[in-house]
Amino acid sequence: MTPDVPTVLNGIVRALMMDLGPELQSPYALLTAQLMSPLLMMVAQEFDRAAARLADENETLVQLFRDAADVVADSELRAALADAAASSQPSSLLVSALRERNHTLRALLVRLHAHVETLQSAAARALDARIWAELAASTQRRHLDLAVG
Amino acid sequence: MSFETAIANYLGQRLPGAHDVRVTRLYRIPGGASRETWSVDAAWRDDRGTEQTRGFIIRRDPPSSLLDSDRRIEFAFYRSFANTSVPVPKPLWLETDPALLERPFFVMERIDGCDSQFQTLISPLYAPHRPALGRRMYEILADIHITALEGLPAAEVTEVPDAASCWRRELDHWERIIDQNELEPQPIARAAIRWMRRNPPPPAQRVSVVHGDYRTGNFLYTPEGIFGILDWEMAHFGDPIEDLAWSFMKAWQWAKDGKPGGVIDREEAIRIWEARSGLRADAAALHWWDVFACVKAQGIWLTGAREFAAGRATDILMAFTSYWLINSQDKFTLEAMGRLP
Question: What is the ipTM of this complex?
Answer without folding.
Answer: 0.92
